[in-house]
Write a structure and sequence with these properties.
- By secondary structure, the protein is α/β, with parallel strands linked by helices.
- The protein has a single domain, classed as Putative cyclase (Glucose Oxidase, domain 1, 3-Layer(bba) Sandwich), CATH 3.50.30.50.
- It contains eight helices and 13 strands.
- It has a nine-stranded mixed β-sheet. A two-stranded antiparallel sheet has the order 2-3.
- The two termini are 27 Å apart.
């Protein structure tokens, strides 16, 4: 999610399990990146799942933005009553709703959404829950210590994973608190800490995700600083923002499937995000 400052500055069911599992087994195994201790690739191991979670908020006119601007509109072009079919015209900013950020979003020549390898969109999830702290401090961020605590409890981050921040903000979509905007026009929402972005960029982590409107904290986003965007997208990796339903997601063991748009030259776009648990 970019604020206006950014724009100005940068201009489950078992019946279906078998079918889906066959389709994703190879990709999931590659995404897990299993390797022997010597560094030699080992044979991909099949993975299975028993539940499918939708991590996507519905997109609608008036979906929250930091300053209240409308970044999505929908108008009827044809209706069944008149033309015997329904077609709508959408007008949207790439970075609205549940959406992904491509490296091109904050680089001069990074990958656009259509250039990211599709295998990078099927990856293990490491979900880090900071919701209790965020409830008390909306300006908090996911720090390197949070990652270390996650690893102490769950083992090393999975190879090629997406690290997801659960700040509890996904529960607030219909509340004014979702944007965190105060009377002075500042936005108080959690995000990743810049040091965490640098730390994860040194590992084989494919993406990071948040349930807020920005990978950065709201205060940094509104100020136009974007240290996490620059560090993370600048490293050639993707991000995903405004995730939903994170309380149903386990800390580890799930597989993310990011259904990003395939638009030539796109810097991001509304996405359907699911987790296989």
């Amino acid at each position: 999610m970019c604020s206006p400052v950014c724009l100005d500055a940068l201009y489950g069911c078992a019946s279906r399990r078998g079918f889906i599992k066959k389709s994703i087994t190879a990709a999931a195994a590659v995404a897990c990146g299993a390797r022997a201790s010597s560094g030699t690739p080992v044979a991909p191991q099949p993975r299975s799942f028993t539940n499918v979670l939708d991590l996507t908020h519905p997109l609608f006119e008036g979906f929250p933005t930091f300053d209240g601007s409308k970044w999505f509109t929908m108008e009827k072009m044809f209706t069944f009553a008149k033309e015997k079919l329904n077609i709508n015209r959408w007008t949207l900013v790439e970075h609205t709703g549940t959406h992904m950020d491509a490296p091109l979003h904050f680089t001069a020549d990074g990958h656009s959404v259509d250039e990211i390898p599709v295998t990078d969109f099927v990856v293990p999830i490491a979900m880090v829950d900071i919701s209790q702290r965020a409830q008390d401090d909306p300006d908090t961020s996911l720090t390197p210590d949070d990652v270390r605590k996650w690893e102490a409890a769950n083992g090393p981050l999975p190879e090629g994973c997406c690290v997801v921040m659960n700040s509890g903000w996904h529960r607030l979509l219909d509340s004014p608190k979702f944007t965190g905007r105060d009377a002075a026009g500042r936005n108080h929402t959690p995000g990743f800490h810049a040091e965490t972005a640098h730390m994860l960029a040194e590992r084989n982590v494919k993406g990071i995700g948040v349930d807020t409107l920005s990978l950065d904290t709201g205060m940094e986003t509104r100020a136009g600083a974007f240290p996490v965007h620059f560090a993370w997208l600048g490293s050639g990796r993707w991000g995903v923002e405004a995730l939903a339903n994170l309380d149903a997601l386990p800390a580890k063991g799930a597989i993310l499937v990011l259904g990003g748009p395939k638009v030539r030259g796109g810097t991001g776009g509304a996405s359907r995000v699911i987790a296989l648990v």
